[in-house]
Structure formats: C-alpha cells, structure tokens
C-alpha cells in the first residue's frame, strides 16, 4: 500500500524535475519558478522524458481547447504544482472553468504560494476582483483549487459541485501518474462516474505501462523502498490494459501509446532543438525508460465536437 505522504512527495519530485528542465531550456514556463525556486541537476534522459510528458499532455489539451473554442472545462486530477492555468492565460486560451484537485497538504501549500506571490495572484481571472481562499481551497471566477482524496468519489462529486462544475459542457480530465496510486476499483469508479455523468468528455492519462518485465519490477522495487507502492499496477501491464480501463467503463474509444511513440510523433523541429541541449550518453536506456510510461486518451463525444480527431499524431 502506498503511503499518502510518499505519494505527496512525488509532487515535489516531479515539480523539481520540471523546474530543472525549464532552466535548461527544454520548454518555456515563466510560472514554475514561483512554486519551485531551484532544483538540483537532473540527468539528460530524465529531462527529455519530462519534455515528452509535458509536450504530449499539452498537445492533447491544446487540441481540445481548439475543438471546443475554449467553451469547456479542465479538471486536473492530482494537479500538484502544475502551472498550466497560468500558461493558458498567457496564451489567451483559457477555458470557462479550470479545476485542480489534490491532497489538502498539497493544495494548502499551493494556495499559500498564490496568495504570497503577486505574479500568480494577478493572473487569476475575476470579474469583481474577489478570490476566496480557505486554508486548503481557492475559488475564483474560472479557477478553483480544492482539497480532496480522489479515492473518495462522494468527496470528489461534492468538491466539483462547490467549484461550479457543469456536467453539460465539454470537459477534459487530466491525470499524470495519479490513478496508479489508488486501487483500480477506485480509479475505475472515477472513470465510470465521468462516463455516466458528463455528456462530452476527454481524458488524458500519463502513467506507467509494461510493468511486467524486469525493468518494470526494478521500478516497482525502487518505489516500494520509498514506501510508495503502486496499488493500481494491474491496469499498467500493457497498452491494451490501459485502453480497456476506459472502454470497459463506458467510454466510446481509447488509445494508448508508449512514450517512445509519443516522442517520435512530437514536432521534429522541437526534438532536434532539445536534443542539442545536452549530450545523451545511452540512447538505449532512455528508450527503455520511455517504454515503461505511456499516454492514454479516451473520449465520449455527446456534443459531436470532433474529439475523435484529437491525437498526438496531430501535434504541432
């Protein structure tokens, strides 16, 4: 069983990795520095892996925003210190509502950073200037941070309602290394609830895959040594199990690619640029790492906005 404290610590680790990659020029994010001041050096394969992760998720999100003309909602599950809300504001691609959910220990820190750092606070869109803070939550016109245990579906529903969630407008759900930290029955409950209650939905899930081989076993052993087991690995065994977790719960269609495939489908000019930033000593170990993570996307297109056309293959 994963320790909740160990799960929370993965947010800090991922944020520091992203911070270092941004410092090295892998992608631009002017807001991450307000959550993570600095970071120790990370190896090139980790930096390239995070580049693929961030670019893959964002290319699907951006296509969804374009397809819906931003008349939509974004729900980020286990959002941590993610800065996507501010970067969308910067690019004038803000949705009607952006909701972040995470453990209260994480959301309380994020709320504190936002309150105390003017460049974050002044970018939050409000009509009357009012931003409501509690110790763990934030509510503004189109941005909400709520503390929740995602394993408790009733609590998830309650917090969505408090954030003005609208079941009738297109909604994209994003989870990055989140579902694997709960038993598959719990993650399936969220996936099924969305399918049953949201007419037009898109789900982007970044997570482990191909965990049955020796490399996968070593990954699991390393995580267990940090009291961070992965109770949801039964759906991380293959690309098929990742896709089936959605189609078996009522989603119209799902597709999953390992991160090697995602990486090779990202814009080649960008790949050529970032591969010049640092020398990668062992290409084979990098490819092995990417083989054990995947990007899965699924949709239900009740409104007929063309969600079947959103794919990493269309990345620009």
TrEMBL record:
It catalyses: [phosphatase 2A protein]-C-terminal L-leucine + S-adenosyl-L-methionine = [phosphatase 2A protein]-C-terminal L-leucine methyl ester + S-adenosyl-L-homocysteine. It is an enzyme of class 2 (transferase). It comes from the Eukaryota. The keyword Transferase applies. Its EC number is 2.1.1.233. S-adenosyl-L-methionine binds at residues 53, 78, 149-150, 176. Keywords: Methyltransferase, S-adenosyl-L-methionine, Transferase. Coiled coil: none annotated. GO terms for biological process: methylation; regulation of signal transduction. It holds the Pfam family LCM. PANTHER family: LEUCINE CARBOXYL METHYLTRANSFERASE, LEUCINE CARBOXYL METHYLTRANSFERASE 1. Belongs to the methyltransferase superfamily. LCMT family. Methylates the carboxyl group of the C-terminal leucine residue of protein phosphatase 2A catalytic subunits to form alpha-leucine ester residues. This is Leucine carboxyl methyltransferase 1.
């Amino acid at each position: 069983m994963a320790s909740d404290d160990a799960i929370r610590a993965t947010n800090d680790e991922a944020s520091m990795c992203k911070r270092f990659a941004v410092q090295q020029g892998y992608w631009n994010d002017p807001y991450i520095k307000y959550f993570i001041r600095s970071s120790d050096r990370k190896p090139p394969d980790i930096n390239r892996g995070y580049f693929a992760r961030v670019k893959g998720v964002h290319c699907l999100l951006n296509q969804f925003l374009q397809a819906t003309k931003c008349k939509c909602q974004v729900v980020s599950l286990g959002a941590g210190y993610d800065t996507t809300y501010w970067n969308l504001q910067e690019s004038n691609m803000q949705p009607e509502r952006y909701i972040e959910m995470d453990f209260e220990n994480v959301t309380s820190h994020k709320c504190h950073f936002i309150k105390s750092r003017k460049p974050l606070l002044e970018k939050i869109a409000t009509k009357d200037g009012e931003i409501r803070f509690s110790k763990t939550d934030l509510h503004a016109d189109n941005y909400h941070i709520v503390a929740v245990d995602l394993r408790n579906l009733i609590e998830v529903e309650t917090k969505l309602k408090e954030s003005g969630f609208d079941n009738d407008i297109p909604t994209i759900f994003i989870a990055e290394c989140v579902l694997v930290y709960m038993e598959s029955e719990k993650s399936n409950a969220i996936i099924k609830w969305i399918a049953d209650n949201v007419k037009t939905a898109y789900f982007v899930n970044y997570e482990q895959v191909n965990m049955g081989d020796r490399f996968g076993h070593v990954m699991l052993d390393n995580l267990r040594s940090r009291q961070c087991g992965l109770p949801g690995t039964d759906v991380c065994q293959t690309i098929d199990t990742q896709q089936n977790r959605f189609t078996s719960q009522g989603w119209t269609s799902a597709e999953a690619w390992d991160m090697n495939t995602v990486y090779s489908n990202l814009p080649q000019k960008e790949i050529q640029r970032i591969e010049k930033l640092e020398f990668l000593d062992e290409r084979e170990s990098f490819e092995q790492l990417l083989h054990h993570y995947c990007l899965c996307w699924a949709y239900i297109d009740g409104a007929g906005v063309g969600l079947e056309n959103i794919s990493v293959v269309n990345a620009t």
